[in-house]
Amino acid sequence: MTRKIFDTVIIGGGVIGCSIARALSKYDASVCLLEKEEDVCSGTSKANSAIVHAGYDAKTGSKKAYFNVEGNKLMGKLAEELDFEFDRNGSVVLCYSEEDMPKLRELYERGITNGVEDMEIISGDELRAREPNITDSVVGALVANTGGIVSPFGLTIALAENASENGVEFKFDTEVVGIKREDGIYTIATNNGEVYAKTVVNAAGIFSDEIHNMVCEDKLHITARKGAYCLLDKEAGGHVKYTVFGLPGKYGKGILVSPTVHGNLLIGPTAMDIDDKFDTATEAGEISEVISGSALGVKNIPYRLTITSFAGLRAHEDGNDFVIGESKDAEGFFDAAGIESPGLTAAPAIGEHVAKLVAEKLGADEKKDFNPIRKGFLKLSEKSFEERAAIIKENPLCGVVVCRCMDVSEGEIVDAIHRPIGAKSLDGLKRRVHQGFGRCQGGFCASKAMEILSRETGIPMEKICKNKSGSEMLSYKM
Ligand SMILES: Cc1cc2nc3c(=O)[nH]c(=O)nc-3n(C[C@H](O)[C@H](O)[C@H](O)COP(=O)(O)OP(=O)(O)OC[C@H]3O[C@@H](n4cnc5c(N)ncnc54)[C@H](O)[C@@H]3O)c2cc1C
User: Fold this and answer.
1) 256-259 and 265-268 as β-strands: parallel, antiparallel, unpaired?
2) Residue 275 CA, ligand 1 centroid: distance in Å
3) How far apart are CA 55 and CA 364, in angstroms?
4) Which pLDDT tens digit goes with each residue over 18-36?
5) pTM for the full model?
6) Is 35's C-beta closer than 6 angstroms to any atom of ligand 1?
7) Residue 420 in 3-state DSSP?
C-alpha cells in the first residue's frame, strides 16, 4: 500500500498553527494540520486578553517586538478578508506617580524604535476627560492608537476555515506522540496512526517544547504561566473605551481592563508560573488579585456583573522570546514555539513568515487560485429589522431564538455546524456563534443546542460533549 506523504504537517490548531496553515494554503503544497482536541482554538488561543498590542512593550530587536508590530499592521486587512471581529479601540498605559513618568517615556521611546506609529503621552486629567472612569491617582498615560481588540476565536476559526477552503486537511482528536525522520521523510506517530511529511511545523503552544524535543538535540523548555480573568456582562461593556493597562512589571503587562469585541468588559490577567500544563482552574485568590489590580486605575467597576471567570496558560520559553524557524539539527522541522503574548497579535505575521520558509524549503510556488476571502458567520443580531425579516423569510430557522442572552437563532447554529470546519461540541458553538456566551452561560439554551447538534451531525445525544471526548453533557445508567 502506498503511503500518503504530505508536503507539510502542522502540529497544533491554535491561532499560530491556523495562521501558518492559511498562509501555506497560498502555495502549491499538500498540508495537513493535526490537533489533539476536537476543534481548533482549544488551547491558549481561546483564553487570553484578546488585545492586538501596539508593540511598545517587547524588547527592541526581539522576535516578539518584530512580529508584534508586523502582526498589528496586518490585522486590519486580514479582518476585512476573513470577516472576523476586530476594533482598533486604542490602548493606554497608566502611570500613578511623577517618579514613574520616565518609565512611561521609556515605553514611548521603545515603541518608536520598534516601529509603532500614532502614540502620545497625555496627562491624567486629559485621560480622565476621554475616559471618565480612570481613577484620580493616575498622573499620566501613554496612548497607543494602533492598539486594538479582536475575537481570538473569530480570528482562529476564520484562519482555519479559509485554510480548509484552500485545501488544507484538518485531523482532529489526533495527538502527536512521537516523531522520527528517515530518508528525508518525517513519520509522525499519533493516537490515530502514522502521518508522513516532508516538512513539519511545530505550533503546539505550551507543549511545543515536548514536540521540539522529540526531534531536536538543542532542547527547549516551556513553563506554563497562568493568567486568570473575570468577564463581566454586556451591561458593563462601556465602562472603558480604551484597553487600560498599568505599567508593565516583571511577569508582563499586569492587570488590564478592556472592552471586548463582543461588548463585555474583561479584567485580568494574573501571572503565575505553574508546573501543571493542564491547570486552567480559577482560584478565589486569583479573582481577588484581578479585582484589586483592576481597581487601581479604573473606578466603579461593577464586579457584581461578573458572568464567568477563566484562565489561560502562556507558553513561556526560558529564552524569553518566540522560537521561530527551521531547527539547526533537524532539516525540514520548523518551530513556532514559545509563542506567549503578544502571540495573538503576532499570529498573522508569524503565519506569513513561517509559510514562506517552508515553501522555500519545499520549492513550492504560489497558487494562482488561492481565495483570500471568507464569509463570516451569520449574525442576525447585527442586522436591521428589515434585513432580519428577509433572512427569516428565506430561512425560518433564523426566526427561532435559542440563546436569549446573546440573541442566537437556530438558523445561525445550523450554519455554524455545517461550515468547512463545523462545530461538533457546545464549546465549538459558543466560539462560533456565541450561543451560551452570555449572562446565563448556557443554563437555559444548552439542552436545545445539544438537540440541534445531535440532529445535524448524527452524534447521539449522550455523546454530545462540552468540548473533548470525556466531557459528555449527559450521564445515564442503562
Ligand atoms: C493570560 C494570557 C493573556 C494573553 N493575552 C494576549 C493578548 O492580549 N494579546 C496577544 O497578542 N497575545 C496574548 N496572549 C498570547 C496568545 O494567546 C498566545 O500567544 C497564542 O494564543 C498562542 O497560540 P498557539 O497557537 O501557539 O497556542 P495554542 O492556542 O495553545 O495552540 C496549540 C495547539 O496545539 C495543540 N497540541 C498541543 N500538543 C499537541 C500534540 N501533541 N498533538 C496535537 N496537537 C497538540 C493544542 O491542543 C492546541 O490546540 C495571552 C496569553 C495568555 C495565556
Assistant:
1) antiparallel
2) 17
3) 32
4) 999 999 999 999 999 999 9
5) 0.97
6) yes
7) coil
Residue of 297, 300, 302 whose CA lies nearest to 137: 297
Query: What would the pLDDT profile of 232-252 be if each residue is shown by its tens digit?
Result: 999 999 999 999 998 876 556
- HSE-CB of 153 using CA atoms within 13 angstroms: 20
Rounded to the nearest whole angstrom, what is the distance from the C-alpha of residue 367 to the centroid of ligand 1? 29
Measured from the Cα of 37, ligand 1's closest atom is 47
Contact 221, 208 (CB under 8 A): no
- DSSP character at residue 151: -
Quote the crossing angle between the two packed helices 426-433 and 446-457, to the nearest 10°.
100
Question: Is the CB of 147 within 6 Å of ligand 1?
Answer: no
Find the 459 Cα to ligand 1 centroid distance in Å: 28
Grid cell, residue 343, equals: 502571540
What are the φ/ψ torsions at residue 365 (nearest 5 degrees)?
-90, 160
- Give the Cα separation of 186 and 188 in Å (integer): 6
| CB of 68 sitting under 6 A from ligand 1 | no
Q: Which residue type is seen at 292? A: S
Phi, psi values for residue 134, rounded to 5°: -75, 140
> Can you tell me which residue has the cell 524549503?
361
Nearest in space to 429 (alpha carbons), one of 439, 440, 411, 237 = 411
Q: Of the residues 53, 212, 239, 316, which is catalytic?
A: 53
Catalytic annotation on 262?
Answer: no
**Rounded to the nearest whole angstrom, what is the distance from the C-alpha of residue 338 to the centroid of ligand 1?**
9
40, 41, 48, 188, best to mutate for ligand 1 pocket (most atoms within 8 Å of CB): 48
Q: For residue 477, name the pLDDT band (cuts at 50, 70, 90).
A: low
* Element of type H or E holding 284: helix 284-297
DSSP, collapsed to helix, strand or coil, labels residue 301 as coil
Q: Three-state secondary structure along 182-229?
A: ECCEEEEEECCEEEEEEEEEECCHHHHHHHHHHHCCCCCCEEEEEEEE
Residue 113 phi/psi, 5-degree rounding, is -65, -35
Query: What's the whole-number mean pLDDT along residues 443-468?
Result: 94
How many residues make up the chain in this entry? 478
Angle, helices 63-82/152-165, rounded to nearest 10 degrees: 70
